[in-house]
Design goal:
Blueprint lengths: L1 H18 L5 E3 L6 E3 H17 L4 E4 H5 L11 E8 L1 H6 L5 E8 L2 E9 L4 E6 L4 E3 L2 E2 L12 E4 L7 H16 L4 E3 L4 H10 L4 E5 L3 H13 L3 E3 L12 E5 L2 H10 L11
Parallel strand pairs: 3-4, 10-11, 10-12
Antiparallel strand pairs: 1-2, 4-5, 5-6, 6-7, 7-8, 8-9, 12-14, 13-14
Helix pairs in contact: 1-2, 6-7
Bound molecules: D-MYO-inositol-1-phosphate (IPD).
Length: 268
């Protein structure tokens, strides 16, 4: 985990510098699914450094997967990397961008590191050892119901009318049930860190990926929270959907209300 922290710091420096510079932007699965040369550069920096130190380990990276690498979690030690989470924010200089590095062995998530590049906040958690932000221990909230909760979500890359109807319908439900608010901040990893920090009560999303979830899942669980599938069952890291909350009651209540948006699977 120390290696991951050092690499996230180095990557964060690159992202911070590039944030205000001119960028070359391309699209991936849809016209709003963006990538820049800095995403590629940072992923290469992280993976090549880790590969040199741990030559037998496997890697799942957002941009390597887009370029055609297989996204399959095996029992081997595997690093799961999002070089810039919040690429759309990054493109617009909206200062919520993060580097996310998770590590799994035997398909179990062992530790996670998320670096909030502009606020220079390092979120870390190792299974059984608690979750921290810059050495300060994190704790989730004890909110059990949707009423009065602050709930975060993210939009995902599909914008066809049927998907948008489901997306807005889900949001409308939580507002109708008097959630205090529903927020979209543009970075799934940082939204999940807010839940871990007790600054929000819950999070749900369809259309995120294993690299958005791997590190954040350990951080939320170690802060005392729960991370489950939108069906209410156990989390499936490859299923492109998630509910997270400070309590299992809130997580289950959120899951119960959601209409499913199908994004397929990362390992398909
Ligand atoms: C995306 C962001 C976005 C979320 C997407 C993610 P990226 O990650 O977290 O907020 O809606 O589902 O894939 O593409 O910026 O690394």
């Amino acid at each position: 985990m120390d290696t991951a922290v050092q690499l996230a710091l180095r990557a964060g420096q690159v992202v911070r510098k590039a944030l205000t510079e001119e960028k070359r932007v391309s699209t991936k699965t849809s016209v709003v699914d963006l990538v820049t040369e800095t995403d590629h550069l940072v992923e290469e920096l992280i993976i090549s450094s880790l590969r040199e130190k741990y030559p037998t380990h496997r890697f799942i990276g957002e941009e390597s997967t887009s370029a055609g690498s297989k996204c399959i979690l095996t029992n081997s030690p595997t690093w799961i990397i999002d070089p810039i989470d919040g690429t759309c924010n990054f493109v617009h200089r909206f200062p919520l961008v993060a580097v996310s590095i998770g590590f799994a062995v035997n398909r179990e998530l062992e530790f996670g590191v998320i670096y909030h590049c502009t606020e220079e906040k390092m979120y870390t958690a190792r299974k059984g050892h608690g979750a921290f932000c810059n050495q300060e221990q994190l704790h989730v909230t004890k909110e059990t119901g949707i009423r009065n909760a602050l709930i975060l979500t993210e939009i995902g890359p599909k914008r066809d009318p049927a998907t948008l109807k489901l997306f807005l319908g889900n949001m409308e439900k939580f507002l109708t049930f008097h959630a205090h608010g529903v927020r979209i901040i543009g970075s799934a990893t940082l939204a999940l860190c807010q839940v871990a920090s007790g600054a929000a009560d819950g999070f749900y999303q369809f259309g995120l990926h294993c690299w958005d979830l791997a590190a954040a899942t350990v951080i939320i669980r170690e802060a005392g929270g729960v991370v489950i599938d939108t069906s209410g069952g156990p989390l499936d890291l490859m299923s492109c959907r998630v509910v997270a909350a400070g309590t299992k009651e809130l997580a289950q209540s959120i899951a119960k209300e959601l209409q499913t948006i199908n994004y397929g699977r990362d390992d398909d």
